[in-house]
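Model it.
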Amino acid sequence: MSLSRSGSLTFVPPALQERVGYDVLLLLLTLALCVGGTIFVLSASSAHATVAFHGNSFAIFQNHALRLGMGLCAMLILSLLDYHRIQRKARGIWIAAMAALIAVLVLPQPPGVTAHRWLYLFGISFQPAEFAKYSLIAYIAMRFAGSDSERFVTERRKLYIGALLVTLLTAGFVVVEPNLSMTLMILITAAFLFFLCGAPIKALSGLAAAVIVPLGLIGWFTPYMHSRLVSYTDAVFHPMRAGYQVKQSLIGIGQGGILGLGLGESTQKHFFLPEPYKDFIFSIVGEELGIVGALVMLAGFTLLIARAWRISLSAPDRFGYYLGAGITFILAVSFLVNIGVTLGLLPTTGQPLPFISFGGSSLIMNLAAVGVLLNISRQTQRRSSLMGQEYPYL
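Modeled.
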């Protein structure tokens, strides 16, 4: 830690911050989490890869490393691309996302796949819903960025209704896949942006009540969702009846104790915990590094979210503010939901741990979103330099 010109403590030397041009702390935290995630994907996946890929224990790790590289390239490109170009093309980006959501519903899926969530092109799978949630943030941010010019209540009402229809249309295509957890993510993120824009709380509450009922019915009458909800509610009243994955996850964390069993020494990854390198990778972290290692990772995430929120608040304009706030909210909720599921506090949702879990569409899109945050910080630093102000440190 060092002192800025104003005398406040900073994690990054101001001279380094000015030389790099981006928010150095956000960049370092993201890279550190990605490195940690890569190590734990290798550790957690080795046993499964050995069986599934005929002795090649590195196969899953290599796949993850390839996708991580793609995500880092996306982060670099978007950190250099002026985020105002996203504002100008927000409608087109959202339309492209909708086209992908429609395509995933009509194109044939591989044998044995029941949910229509992935596009398969040239041997590569992609989940359009991951792209759709960020495209919706860009669209809403673009619409709300001009809300100050809407003087009359009727005009603001039109603004809200237009953004609401786009939100419901996006969520509607995602829930049909079916993907209830992603639908909820889209809806609560949109509600958060509506709240930031000053939408009436009564209207948001009424809308929430109107949406919860049909989503609850969908969850209850969709077989796999129903089984997850029943398993969760049963475990709340009878902890010993918790689902198999949650039991094994808690066993792994419990075995880790304070300092853990040691890196690579997890027992749960040996086919006790299904696909431990994906949604339940935090359990492997807790087992191998113990409570201390898990807390270090939690601290890293918390600091990253705090830094991303600070960048959003300091954005040069309202579009940057809404865009950054939406990205920060998604990362924070994804993190909290994954940890909650791992600890048995929430129903199993299939939500990966950002930057840590075995990645595909989620990893690439999250890193691309960090690239946007870095560009916002770059624009903020330029403005601060021109105005003779200090960059907004923590």
